[in-house]
Amino acid sequence: MTTPKIQPCLWYDGDAEQAAEFYAATFPDSHVTAVQRAPADYPAGHAGDVLTVEFTVLGMPFLGLNGGPAFRFDEAVSFQIATEDQAETDRYWNAIVGHGGQESACGWCKDRWGLSWQITPRALTEGMADPDRAAARRVMEAMMTMGKIDVAAIEAARRGDNG
After folding, report:
1. How far, rounded to the nearest angstrom, does the alpha carbon of residue 63 sit from its chain's CA centroid?
2. pLDDT in tens, 52-98
3. How many domains does the chain have?
4. What sign does the CA torsion over 125, 131, 133, 135 have?
5. Which end of the chain is more exposed for a tag (fewer CB within 10 A), N or C?
6. Residues 46 and 87 in one domain
7. For residues 19, 25, 29 and 33, what is the CA-based torsion angle, rounded to 10 degrees?
8. Are residues 98 and 42 in the same domain?
């Protein structure tokens, strides 16, 4: 297996392996590839502690680093997941929020590690890009009232349905 030329490294506070296992169980085409343990004691830990975890989420490789409590995730970096329908949107949203995560607005949520996710139905991205700018505006206005995206409400807004 060749190492990718570029690979996001995500900083965790000792629970990179648990995060990688959660992502592998939640998203298709996802798995834990390797777990590297410390070969000796070091200032912040002991021989055998998990140092890094290589994992794949939706086909994209990541490295989880157990770097300690010095740094936390924030909304400056998020992962956008394009979903096909309400069922897929619900599945990812409920997995992330329902396992210690937190709801936010406009399709955003955080997992229990503080990593931000945008669970984004294609109906939303297509509606926002509608060449009919009035339809796109209605879609955006509908989205602004939502936490988890409601696909039927987005489609209704795009059509101009009031009810």
Report:
1. 15
2. 999 999 999 999 999 999 999 999 999 999 999 999 999 999 999 99
3. 2
4. negative
5. C
6. no
7. 50
8. no
Residue with tokens 């509606």: 127
By residue count, the chain amounts to 163
Q: Which residues of 81-101 are buried (b: 16+ CB within 10 A; e: fewer)?
A: bebeebebbbebbebbbeeeb
Kindly state whether residues 33 and 94 are assigned to the same domain.
Answer: no
Residues 92-97: contacts with CB within 8 Å, 24+ apart?
A: 92/26, 92/27, 92/117, 92/119, 93/119, 93/148, 95/26, 96/26, 97/148
- Rounded Cα distance between 20 and 95, Å, is 14
For the beta carbon of residue 146, count every other beta carbon within 10 angstroms: 14
Print burial letters for 22-56: b (CB count within 10 Å at least 16), e (below 16).
Answer: bbbebbeebebeebeebeeeeeebeeeebbbbbbb
pTM: 0.92
Q: Are 78 and 117 in contact (CB under 8 A)?
A: yes
CB 73 within 8 A of CB 116: yes
Can you say whether residue 46 is alpha, beta or left, with left for phi > 0 and alpha for psi between -120 and 50 degrees? beta
